[in-house]
Write a structure and sequence with these properties.
heterodimer; A: 322 residues; two-stranded antiparallel ribbon; 77% helix; B: 292 residues; mainly alpha; 2 strands; 72% helix; 1% strand; elongated
Chain lengths: 322, 292
């Protein structure tokens, strides 16, 4: 029941976003300027107006926009003269690999560090972890990226400055992390993108741990004679992990959005870099395609995380049933 | 305790308990001061072309200029003194961040109060819009707005307002709903005051403190977001070089080892954001009755 209602909500959100994107493209400014290349001649303009139905009433135009979007036709890129959606989909694996790599770094480092800081909040270890996380929170992503390049590529010369390097195809999807050179290209951008989420996960885990350590079940476990590592590893970790994984899942969307910045700095050939390039040359079909694809991904991620959360935590099910 | 202090006095006391927060507070004051007084403090006006000498371009930190003064933090590709450029940039970054936050605060406050007061479908509608907007990262929303609307100081401020108002609306609505259930509101109703008066004179003063905390931290977010957008080439125009734009200008020289053009504006940006976050954190703790 809850899942059905949640899917309904997602559908509404998708609909609202498509109306907003439509309004942004068609209602603000002249759609002829937005969707037709400035280099197009008169006949081409007339043909596109007829094809997109720009001479018809607004609701009909929305319908044409929606149905062509649903069939995957989002117009042709001016710059590349290829279908916009193809350009986006072609770049998507690079962005997803970067985003997942960043998330893995953030989770693998963030949860143990946060746990440590939560268990020993007043020790120097706990304090320096927290100071580091405040710094990570405050450092602007793009500047960290520049500094990483400066230190590790320019000064030390350990890692390549930009680009993706060679890729290996896995089930037809090109990935970097399987070859040594590809991995070397991936490290800096992934670390850059991970930093903010790492700080967030440290804070969350620390807060969760501190709260959990005061709970009755921890006291009971200790009274029962459970060894301290097991108290933390089994009882505490299991209880704090659900909200942390939920947040990590929800943050995946924001990692994909922030990849725009990281990709631009490291010349990582993903969707975000394509978006900035398209904005700079006013290649609007690609911008629209990026938006619709990202919005769809966001709504799907939110839906999935919500459904998983309900499956994992019975308390939420009960609350929503009430 | 026999002596009851005023709430403000108590707030200051709690705030001052943390040494790091105090240092951050005074650093923030100093930053604001040098930003306001930038034209008086800097050795040159970095945007007056008559004062620039192209022979001085890309000098390392500590080098002497042709005119004889020292570039303590080096100079950029136009021969601009980085200290001057940073102070002017700080001025622009801070004013854009503060102005957009205040405007968003006002709008969010109004909408949040309307939602709390009206309830029913209007409340539900407003909160759905807030939820929808907050489910998208602010950088994406701002990028899209700027991509559609074009560049300019006014446009970036509008974009920063659009991405921020929802936080305030949600915070205000939440606190206002809690306050509306309290006894003093019942008392005011019994005293025969109108609902608008109760909302503005009784509820609003109690809603403000948590809002100020959100706003403090949001100024840091706004500054960081503006810097990021400017770095991507979608924020401030060349005529208003914020810290983000300075960093972007230095980006091309970074690979040839001329780090200072990007590095020092970045440090200024980082310092500003860190101290604002520290002050915001401590304000939140000071206002949180559970931690007293």
């Amino acid at each position: 029941m809850f899942v059905l209602r949640r899917i309904g909500q997602s559908a509404v959100a998708l609909f609202v976003m498509s109306v907003l994107v439509f309004a942004g493209v068609y209602a603000i400014g002249n759609p002829v300027d937005i969707l037709i290349s400035p280099q197009a001649d008169q006949a081409e303009i007339a043909q596109t107006i007829a094809r997109l139905g720009l001479d018809r009433p607004l609701w009909e135009q929305y319908w044409v926009f929606l149905s062509s979007a649903l069939s995957g036709d989002l117009g042709k890129s001016f710059a590349a003269s290829a279908p916009a959606i193809d350009l986006i989909l072609e770049r998507m694996p690079a962005t997803l690999e970067l985003a997942f790599a960043a998330m893995v770094i953030a989770i693998v480092l963030g949860i143990p560090l946060g746990l440590l800081a939560g268990l020993k909040p007043d020790s120097w270890v706990g304090r320096s972890i927290m100071a580091g996380s405040i710094l990570g929170f405050s450092l602007p992503t793009f500047w960290v990226g520049l500094m990483l390049i400066m230190v590790f590529s320019v000064q030390l010369g350990w890692l390549p400055t930009t680009g993706r390097g060679p890729t290996v195809d896995v089930l037809g999807i090109p990935v970097s992390f399987l070859s040594w050179d590809g991995l070397r290209h991936l490290i800096l951008p992934a670390a850059n993108l991970a930093l903010f989420k790492l700080s967030l996960l440290i804070r969350l885990t620390r807060a969760g741990t501190r709260e959990a350590m005061l709970q009755d079940y921890v006291r009971f476990a200790r009274a029962k004679g459970v060894a301290e590592p097991n108290v933390v590893g089994v009882h505490v970790l299991r209880n704090i992990l659900i909200p942390i994984i939920t947040v990590a899942g929800l943050e995946l969307g924001s990692v994909i959005a922030f990849a725009i910045v990281t990709e631009t700095i490291f010349a990582w050939p993903g969707m975000g870099k394509l978006l900035i390039e398209s904005i700079n040359v006013l290649d609007r079909p690609v911008i629209v395609a990026y938006l619709l694809v990202t919005v769809f991904m966001f709504i799907m991620i939110n839906l999935l995380v919500d459904v998983l959360y309900t499956a994992l935590d019975p308390r939420v099910r009960l609350k929503s049933a009430r | 305790m026999s002596v009851v202090n005023s709430p403000t006095r108590e707030l200051i006391d709690v705030f001052a308990r943390d040494r790091i927060a105090l240092i951050a507070f005074w650093t923030l004051c100093a930053l604001l001061l040098v930003a306001v007084a930038a034209p008086l403090l800097t050795p040159q006006n970095p945007y007056d072309l008559a004062q620039l000498d192209i022979l001085d371009s890309k000098l390392a930190p500590g080098a002497k200029s042709a005119a004889g003064y020292t570039y303590w933090l080096g100079s950029d590709d136009q021969g601009r003194d980085m200290v001057s450029a940073i102070l002017y940039g700080l001025r622009i970054s801070l004013s854009v961040g503060i102005a957009s936050t205040l405007a968003a605060l006002g709008i969010g406050l109004l909408i949040g109060l309307i939602a709390a007061r009206a309830g029913g479908w209007l409340d539900a509608l407003i909160m759905r819009i807030v939820d929808l907007q907050l489910s998208f990262p602010s950088i994406l929303v701002a990028l899209v707005l700027l991509a559609l609307a074009g560049q300019g100081v006014d446009k970036i401020i509008i974009a920063l307002i659009v991405v921020q108002w929802a936080y305030y609306a949600r915070t205000v609505r939440g606190t206002a709903l809690v306050e509306l259930r309290k006894e003093y509101v019942d008392a005011a109703v019994c005293a025969g005051y109108g609902s608008t008066r109760i909302l503005l004179r009784h509820v609003l003063p109690n809603v403000l403190p948590p809002l100020i905390v959100v706003a403090t931290v949001q100024v840091a977010h706004a500054i960081a977001l503006e810097a990021t957008l400017s770095f991507l080439g979608l924020g401030m125009p060349i005529t208003s070089p914020s810290l983000g734009l300075l960093i972007a200008n230095g980006y091309v020289h970074l690979l040839s080892g001329k780090y200072w053009i990007s590095f020092f504006p970045g440090i200024a940006l980082l310092l500003t954001i860190v101290v604002i976050n520290l002050v915001g954190d401590q304000l939140r703790d000071a206002l949180n009755p559970q931690l007293k």
